[in-house]
């Protein structure tokens, strides 16, 4: 057994799918339930960490011990994460932030009319949160990204490990039924620079979260 480096440390966890509004009552969203991120927040609390949970809208109850920062859009999540990360030791980005948002948000509910069978929506890229974090990251801080992929899991995930400036990447095959988005179970592969990929069995998100936090504790050099 190794000792617990996470006790008393500050850990930021993100969870859920961000929403990008089209008008006051409509948004572009995704299938993330927040379950993976909330389980990671709980696992970090259980290891004695002070946890800040930056959460997109979910139906879940956060761990009572966590400080919760509710956000809606990817830009709001970026601002909350960058600010919390600068007074923290570890970041785990389990959220599914929208990669695109509508260029304009209508002030009023968009109406349909008899002569308009089509509506064009122009989208623009949102900021990459992990890349913003990489710019302020100090030596000793540890960051973990996820890669949710429907094909070429390890190739795409390895690319994200390099591109996003993270210490560790958790690859999540979201094409498999019963794991990934929304369910209670997951199966992931840990990618670390210069280490062979390590695949977990299919387990509950609670158990996967514990493996993720244990892995961080094992490889983090404070
Ligand atoms: O919430 P659940 O229903 O429990 O589902 C869990 C999950 C499938 C959402 C989770 O396990 C997962 O894989 N989360 C990452 C989802 C995602 O956005 O993956 P990605 O491959 O598109 O992004 C790669 C990494 O960059 C992720 O850590 C993501 O949080 C981050 N990112 C993405 C977009 C963006 N604008 N900024 C980012 O930092």
Oligomer: single chain
Give the strand content.
25-35%
Q: Determine the N-to-C terminus distance.
A: 17 Å
Helix/strand/pairing class, anyone? Answer: alpha/beta
Which term fits the overall shape? Answer: globular
Broad CATH class? Alpha Beta
> What CATH architecture do you see?
3-Layer(aba) Sandwich
CATH superfamily: CoaB-like
Order of helices and strands: EEEHEEHEEEHEHEEEEEH
Sheet with most strands: strand arrangement: 5-4-1-6-9-10-12-13
Rg result = 18 Å
Number of strands: 14
- Count of helices? 5
- For this structure, the CATH topology is Rossmann fold
- Which small-molecule ligands are present, each listed once? ligand PMT
Domain tally = 1
Q: Note poorly predicted spans.
A: none
The profile of the biggest β sheet is: 8 strands, mixed
Mean pLDDT: 96
**Portion of residues within helices:** 25-40%
Protein name: Coenzyme A biosynthesis bifunctional protein CoaBC
Binding site for CTP: 99, 109, 127-130, 146, 160, 164
Family: In the N-terminal section; belongs to the HFCD (homo-oligomeric flavin containing Cys decarboxylase) superfamily.
Catalytic activity: N-[(R)-4-phosphopantothenoyl]-L-cysteine + H(+) = (R)-4'-phosphopantetheine + CO2; (R)-4'-phosphopantothenate + L-cysteine + CTP = N-[(R)-4-phosphopantothenoyl]-L-cysteine + CMP + diphosphate + H(+)
